[in-house]
From TrEMBL:
Signal peptide: 1-24
Transmembrane spans: 202-225
Source superkingdom: Eukaryota
Gene name of the record: LOC106063070
Protein name: Uncharacterized protein LOC106063070
InterPro entries: LDL_receptor-like_sf, LDrepeatLR_classA_rpt, LRAD2/Mig-13-like
Gene3D superfamilies: Low-density Lipoprotein Receptor (4.10.400.10)
PANTHER family named in the record: CUB DOMAIN-CONTAINING PROTEIN, LOW-DENSITY LIPOPROTEIN RECEPTOR CLASS A DOMAIN-CONTAINING PROTEIN 2
SMART domains: LDLa
Length: 228
């Protein structure tokens, strides 16, 4: 049984390493960036996950790129509140919003977004964009969302510059540093397929899976032996 526990601990450590590898993308929390300007160098993951999230708006600008694009990698909203909002045909309790500096709103300008399913679009924020959370009654937040924001360079003479990756989409080029990182920065998965092979996160994932499988077999074997 001691060996099983040891292997389980190894499995947990490996899983932690795997998570750290996937989280190589810079992560920031909306609750700690309220009112601030975030310069996006390559990419950044903005997380809305606080139970006590105040109304908040963060400004997003590229460090040296031509524009920013954004997509939601995760979204969850409490079903009960969502049903109430749908009946009232509005975001009764809370909502999120994406907008640009020229006052283009990707969701309803007054209500924002509070749907049941993750927004599936790829949003062009231009040279300056805003991600905001709004609570209309001060209740604790039941919304959770991860927004992946990527710095994009426009193609020059139909090619990407040295150190950049061609997304083969909308003339987008992204930094080589954000390819093969477990996140779809281009919006078409090309940066997670072309030239990636067995990347570090994938290798670690395979190792984690094998270790956990061995641990499971050992635990089952020990349990069977004890009951004989």
């Amino acid at each position: 049984m001691k060996m099983a526990r040891t292997l389980l601990n190894v499995c947990l450590v490996a899983a932690t390493i795997f998570n750290a590898a996937i989280e190589a993308t810079k992560t920031k929390y909306l609750s700690s960036e309220c009112g601030d300007e975030v310069k996006v160098n390559g990419d950044v993951l903005i997380k809305l996950n606080s139970w006590f999230q105040p109304n908040c708006k963060v400004t997003l600008v590229p460090r040296s790129g031509d524009r920013l694009i954004a997509r939601f990698t995760y979204y969850h909203f409490n079903g009960f509140r969502n049903i109430i909002g749908l009946i009232a045909n509005e975001c009764t309790f809370e909502s999120i919003q994406l907008s640009t500096s020229d006052s283009h709103y990707y969701f309803d300008e007054d209500d924002g977004f509070c749907g049941a399913y993750k927004p599936s679009g790829l949003y062009d924020l231009g040279q300056k964009g805003y991600f905001s959370y709004n609570s209309k009654n001060g209740l604790t937040s039941s919304m959770k969302a991860d927004l992946l924001v990527t710095e994009v360079f426009d193609k020059r003479n139909k090619t990407c510059a040295s150190g950049q990756f061609d997304c083969d989409k909308n003339n987008y080029c992204i930094s080589d540093d954000v390819t093969c990182n477990g996140y779809d920065n281009c919006g078409n998965d090309r940066d997670e397929v072309k030239g990636c092979g067995l990347t570090t996160p994938i290798i670690i994932g395979i190792v984690v899976g094998c270790i956990c499988f061995v641990v499971l077999l050992i635990v089952i074997g020990v349990c069977i032996a004890k009951h004989r």
